[in-house]
Design goal:
mainly alpha; about 80% helix; about 100 residues
C-alpha cells in the first residue's frame, strides 16, 4: 500500500493520459476503449522508468510527464494494431520485398 501513497501523482498522470485519449477520439465500442486503455496504462507503467533511464532524465522531475505521454502513446499504438488486417500486413511485406 505504501507504493500507491508514494506514487499517487504518477498514477494520476497515467490514468489521466489514458482518459484523455479515450475522450479525444471518435466513436468506438466500450470493449475497444477498455482494451486500448489497459494497453496505454500498461505501456506507461512498464516503460516510464526505462525511458527516463535511457534519456538520462531526472526521475523526480520527469517521471509523471513521461508516464502520461506513454499512456497516450500506448493507447494510440494499440489503435493502429486494432485496425490492421491480414491484407494490410501482406501489402506491407510485399512492399518491403520490393514489390509494388
Amino acid at each position: 500500500m505504501d507504493w500507491f501513497r508514494e506514487n499517487v501523482w504518477f498514477l494520476v498522470s497515467v490514468f489521466g493520459g489514458a482518459l484523455l485519449s479515450v475522450f479525444s477520439i471518435d466513436t468506438h465500442s466500450m470493449k475497444e476503449a477498455l482494451i486500448r486503455t489497459v494497453c496505454g496504462v500498461f505501456c506507461a507503467l512498464t516503460f516510464a522508468n526505462p525511458v527516463i533511464d535511457w534519456m538520462k532524465l531526472d526521475p523526480t522531475i520527469y517521471e509523471n510527464g513521461v508516464a502520461g505521454l506513454l499512456a497516450i502513446s500506448g493507447y494510440s499504438i494499440s489503435k493502429i494494431f486494432a485496425n490492421i488486417s491480414v491484407e494490410k500486413i501482406l501489402k506491407v511485406i510485399k512492399t518491403l520485398r520490393g514489390g509494388k
